[in-house]
Amino acid sequence: MASISMALLCFFASFAFLPFLSAMPKQTYIVHVKHQDKPSSYVTHHDWYSSQLKSLSDSDSDSSLLYTYTDAYHGFAASLDADQAESLRRSESVIGVYEDTVYNLHTTRTPEFLGLEIESGHNTQVLDQASHDVIIGVLDTGVWPESKSFDDTGLPEIPTRWRGQCESGSDFKPTLCNKKLIGARSFSKGFHTASGGSISKKPKEAESPRDLDGHGTHTASTAAGSNVANASLLGYASGTARGMATQARIGIYKVCWSIGCFGSDILAGMDRAISDGVDVLSLSLGGGSAPYYRDTIAIGAFTAVEKGIFVSCSAGNGGPVRASLANVAPWIMTVGAGTLDRDFPAFASLGNKKRFTGVSLYSGKGMGNKPVGLVYSKGNNGTGNLCLPGSLEPDFVRGKVVVCDRGVNARVEKGSIVRGAGGIAMILANTAESGEELVADSHLLPAVAVGKKVGDLIREYVRSDPNPTAVLSFGGTVLDVRPSPVVAAFSSRGPNLVTPQILKPDVIGPGVNILAAWSDAVGPTGLDTDTRKTQFNIMSGTSMSCPHISGLAALLKAVHPTWSPSAIKSALMTTAYTQDNTKSPLRDAAGGGFSNPLAHGAGHVDPHKALDPGLVYDISTNDYISFLCSLDYPIDRVQTIVKRPNVTCSRKFSNPGQLNYPSFSILFGNKRVVRYSRVLTNVGAPGSVYDVAVSAPTSVGVTVKPTKLVFRNVGEKQRYTVTFVAKKDAAITPRPEFGSIVWSNSQYQVKSPVAFAWTQL
Q1: Which helix (H) or strand (E) segment is 269 a member of?
Q2: 280 and 136 in one domain?
Q3: Residue 496 phi, psi dihedral angles, 5° rounding
Q4: pLDDT surpasses 50 at 3
Q5: Residue 746 annotated among the catalytic residues of the structure
Q6: Domain tally for the chain?
Q7: Strand pairing report for 737-744 and 717-726
């Protein structure tokens, strides 16, 4: 006993002043601990943490200790009051104590659009067979296991290395899992603490992996759903629904609940997914930008990538606002959203004989052919134009078609409010923020969504005509839409506020009007008043584009099992395309003009080219550590992320942009010259020779040495150096400019986008 007391004396000395009975409110804190300081007298870190908490209070320490983290983080999550948290901060064995953070969800034809239905140089049967051994872990709102998208017909036995399991709950039996859905767990302790309960009280939401929201079922089936024939949303987008990697396995980690996704639960889900043995982690959620040592997802993802797990995250839906990105750590694949070549046209015919085209997924009884009155009003409180709750006057809108401005509240909620006030139909008109982006919704009443330009014309018509009228009609599903893809206006944009020298997002993928499986517990709009049931739903968001890339990464992992996560990321980035199906540069839905790498990253993913990229930019764990050290974080902050107590930062990059990243972000600041080196690894044929081609704005000179790379062997590495010079006589612009560096031969094009900025945002 004496040795235990001596070992813990330093740790507990600071707790003596604390009253044992505290009336202060409690909340969840994540505590980062010096892992190596555990006294040998404790068998496990869990035992040690329990003792630490026992010293703070006379209450049951196990009720305060929410999670013990082992892989994704060194430390624990606990329910503490402010004084207890402050006492822990004073301990020499504690590196940091942080309040729990709330993260948000970033809410048939896709495989064809990506070319996955087209024969290529890769045998589809071989690809499917290899995918049997790949496991995708999805952190989201859970799963509706009865969905046909999780049918396991034809799949072989579960890989023996899998250590996951199916948890039971009041509404979820372990037998619901199968050889497709091989694991399902839930993590709710942070949520319960935040919502006013505790883990010892009966929860308001069932503690189970069942999806009562629909989002998690949608994302999981997008990544690796089985083939389902005759899938549609109430007749829209009819066809075969399938995930990107139809033969891959799925492990579900429910970390999101009715009021959000809490960092302590996310970290617990990542921790368990890593130990369960997933190959890919897919997270369609995020928060704002924060230093990496305060970013729960970034910290957990670092360990995952170190262990060979590819991590794909949504970029966020904060676009078209600049610098609105989430999940910007360089070891994470940050995914923006673009459109498909499929649309759902709907029409607004006005009394002035003009007919405008928009989109809709309305599937109920139509309006007929008789025009009815059209209204648009700010209302008494100035919010009637937005159709916010309580903003519409029933006497004004009853029996009318109501024009609602997009923004503030959910698009489908606006329709519900119009209907509740007596309106019979809605025209949802974009404002400047959404530009010309059209997102289709399964509205509860006849509704058409239109872009800003059309919206302005309709608004002006209502204002100027003494008796404005409209009738709406619906055109079903249309394919081969041009141009496509187009960058979604909502897709979050760079620059990267945490490290401007790393260009983000990395790529875009399909994220607008995506058909995938849905939960039977909720209608397609997600509104409480929506009693409709559907096995599939159409949704939009970077939440939808992220699992596309997660599934594609699983395919690359199947074909190239020895590739690192950074090699897979490189393959997806350097083969991405930047021209649409009209051979024009990618356009941006926000304004209709050309897009740029701050919106689309390296471009839109091209799965077949990514399977055989020729060259890759590989990054080791030590490279990432050198990158972190170059940020000049205190050493304990670096250790928070890398979980290595012996890290000293004796080796660090002179500039964070020295990381061997597949893209370039040049921040001149007060310098005229920026010089970076990169290393390429040959994953193509032996004896490959590549020549470089550079494009840059006239204000910048770019020199690459050498201009030719010769790879005699597979796996051989070659280094090149790029010097970027801001020309003296060139006018400095506050706007970013762009270029590219391309290594190519007759078979391959290995392209890296370059962004140039003269001042930091």
Answers
A1: helix 263-276
A2: yes
A3: -75, 115
A4: no
A5: no
A6: 4
A7: unpaired
How many other CB atoms sit within 10 Å of the CB of residue 320? 22
CATH of the domain at 44: 3.30.70.80
Q: How far is CA 727 from CA 30, 313, 473, 676, 758, in A?
A: 48, 37, 56, 18, 12
Please name the residues in contact with 352: beta carbons below 8 A apart, sequence gap of 6 or more: 461, 465
| Helix residue spans in 100-188 (DSSP H) | 110-113, 124-131
Q: pTM for the complete prediction?
A: 0.92
User: Peptide bond before 634: cis, by omega within 30 degrees of 0?
Assistant: no
pLDDT tens-digit series, residues 694-725:
999 999 999 999 999 999 999 999 999 999 99
Residue 90: count other Cβ atoms within 10 Å of its Cβ. Answer: 12
Choice among 543, 550, 595, 688 that is catalytic: 543
Coil vs helix vs strand at 287? coil
Longest CA–CA separation in the chain, Å:
92
Whether 81 and 114 map to the same domain: the answer is: no
Q: 617 pLDDT exceeds 80?
A: yes
Which residue among 140, 213, 506, 618 is the active-site one?
140
Q: Phi/psi at 4 (nearest 5 deg)?
A: -65, -45
* Dist. CA 645–CA 678, nearest whole Å: 29
Catalytic, out of 132, 215, 600, 604: 215
Question: Quick one: tokens of 478?
Answer: 């249309």
CA distance 333 to 219: 16
Pick the closest to residue 513 from 356, 406, 361, 409 (CA basis): 361
Contact between 458 and 449 (Cβ < 8 Å): no
User: H-helix or E-strand containing 676?
Assistant: strand 673-682
Catalytic residue list contains 64? no
Annotated active-site residue 729? The verdict is no
Please state, in angstroms and as integers, the Cα–Cα distance from residue 24 to each residue in 19, 27, 82, 584, 736, following that order.
11, 10, 7, 61, 50
Sign of CA dihedral 680, 684, 686, 687: negative
First and final CA of the chain: distance in angstroms? 57
Asked if 599 and 493 count as a contact pair (C-beta separation under 8 A), the reply is yes
For residue 123, pLDDT beyond 90: no
Q: Is the same domain home to 32 and 160? A: no
Decide if 427 contacts 450 (C-beta within 8 A).
yes
CATH number, domain containing residue 111: 3.40.50.200
Contact 729, 591 (CB under 8 A): no
Give the pLDDT band (50/70/90) at residue 5. Answer: very low
Q: pLDDT: is 709 or 435 the higher one?
A: 709
Three-state SS at 409: strand
- Containing structural domain, residue 90: 27-99
Q: Please tell me whether residues 295 and 153 are part of one structural domain.
A: yes
